[in-house]
Design brief:
About 40% of the residues lie in helices and about 25% in strands. The chain is an alpha/beta fold and about 325 residues long.
Length: about 325
């Protein structure tokens, strides 16, 4: 029995609560994972997992064993990565989960910069709007706005994500320009369905803060669809500046109610406290932080044109 491979299999099954998912992450068959767990249980002399056709859960001994195993696997991989860094360039796979709103139009240049420095690291990028737990889903890190419910994660802020209301000049010509947040109730609104406050939000004016519950005619989990919806003169949408800045700068979209800014979120990197790819992840985080130090470039362009204040509302 290879004790390290058996312990690694146990950790992955415990974290994912699935033999099939652990096998997928390890790129081996399910029978291999099952055999490694059985060998480990035979070696320690007691069951580590209780499993049936519907669920996998830790035994009492497995719960006591897991934390030390997680630390062992993480530390072993970290030491191996460090030795690789000394002898050659880092190698291996780094699994990253990211939001489409950030990836499309903004991340490819960062990835190119990272891979030019570390050409032997394979990036495995999964892109969707779900707020995932990278521990359970088997990712080394997740680039997202809303934190998953997990106490086992570390987070690092990258940049603020500002939201703005905007519409085309043609829509404004046909339907009028809202002068106050309450005027939005008389317009067709497109709204991102993933906000934790749902359709409730606060507008922070210099003289007043206006609380409002919108009645959108379009709800979607795609900020890019909202942008395209607005460009079709279909309504007023609320989207992040990272999606809309180019269309605002070239005049295809016009800001609505800029004197009533909305609170900003933060795009953060979430990753496990103990990771198997500690060195590769550190190198990736270094490139991200270097690329997004200070205000993001799409906001800088809006600020330079006087379309947005430099201060943010949190």
């Amino acid at each position: 029995m290879d004790r390290f491979l058996a312990i690694d299999a146990f950790v992955r099954v415990a974290e994912t609560q699935s033999f099939a998912e652990a096998a997928r992450q390890m790129r081996v068959s399910r029978s291999v994972v099952t055999a490694r767990i059985q060998q480990l249980e035979a070696f320690v002399g007691a069951p580590l997992l209780h499993r049936n056709t519907r669920s996998v859960r830790l035994s009492e001994l497995g719960q006591a064993f897991l934390r030390d195993c997680v630390e062992l696997v993480g530390r072993t991989n970290e030491v191996v990565d460090q030795m690789r860094e000394v002898t050659t360039s880092p190698t291996g796979r780094l699994r990253v989960h990211a939001l489409p709103g950030f990836v499309l139009g903004h991340l490819a240049q960062v990835l190119q910069r990272f891979q030019s420095r570390y050409p032997q690291i394979v990036l495995d990028m999964i892109v969707n709007d779900a707020a995932i737990d990278p521990v359970k889903e088997g990712f080394d890190c997740a680039l997202q706005i809303f934190p998953p419910r997990s106490e086992e994660l570390i987070s690092k802020k990258l940049f603020p994500v500002r939201r703005v209301f905007c519409a085309t000049p043609e829509y404004v010509r046909r339907h009028g320009l809202p002068r106050h947040p309450r005027d939005l109730l008389g317009h067709r609104i497109g709204w991102y369905s993933g906000y934790p406050t749902r359709e409730r939000l606060a507008f922070h004016g210099a003289a007043e803060t206006v609380q409002l519950e919108l009645k959108p005619v379009l709800l979607t989990n795609s900020v890019h669809l909202l942008r395209e919806y607005a460009l079709e003169n279909a309504g007023i949408v609320c989207v992040p500046t990272l999606v809309a800045a180019d269309a605002i700068l070239d005049g295809r979209l016009r800001l609505m109610l800029p004197e009533f800014p909305l609170s900003a979120f933060w795009l953060s990197v979430f990753y496990p406290a103990t990771v198997r790819s500690a060195l590769k992840l550190k190198l990736f985080l270094d490139v991200l932080e270097q690329s997004f130090s200070g205000p993001p470039p799409w906001d800088e362009a809006l600020i330079a044109r006087g379309l947005m204040p430099a201060t943010i509302v949190e």
